[in-house]
Design a protein that fits this description.
By secondary structure, the protein is an alpha+beta fold. The chain is built from three helices and six strands. The protein has a six-stranded antiparallel sheet.
Length: about 140
């Protein structure tokens, strides 16, 4: 089994992201793509996708990108800025690791709608656990 498939299997254990409908499409070193179909269950009182659902999608993509090196990494601080609301259809999250530090990586996630328009930008730093590699957890 190649590393990408192993990581995709590992992230299927993220029950919260799965419950929200977020799914990983691809993982490569320092990069990940995910998507989520916005349904009626995602809508807030204003009739648009709840910000927490978009945050969950972005956080999943972040986690996949920074864990792509095989070392278990958790988020330590995250920020999201919303630019456009979405009420239906797919939203996509593309994460790029900007700093691949041995202990404190940093990544940016761009969330777009089906037309490719920017919905949000999510940034996050993480903490890598040196003694516990991700792939040994599988």
């Amino acid at each position: 089994m190649n590393r990408e498939m192993t990581l995709l299997e590992f992230f299927k254990k993220d029950r919260f992201a799965a419950m929200a409908g977020a799914e990983l499409l691809e993982i490569s070193e320092g990069h990940a793509r995910a998507r989520m179909l916005v349904t009626a269950e995602h809508l807030n009182g204003g009739g648009v996708c709840q910000g927490g659902a978009i945050f969950t999608l972005a956080d999943l993509a972040f986690a996949a990108a920074v864990n792509s090196h095989g070392v278990l990494t958790f988020s330590t601080s995250s920020n999201i800025t919303y630019f456009k609301s979405v009420a239906a259809g797919y939203v996509y999250a593309e994460a790029t690791e900007i700093v691949n530090h041995p202990r404190m990586p940093y990544a940016e996630v761009r969330v777009t709608d089906e037309a490719g328009e920017l919905v949000a930008i999510f940034t996050s730093s993480g903490y890598r656990k040196q003694k516990n590699t991700l792939l040994s957890e599988l």
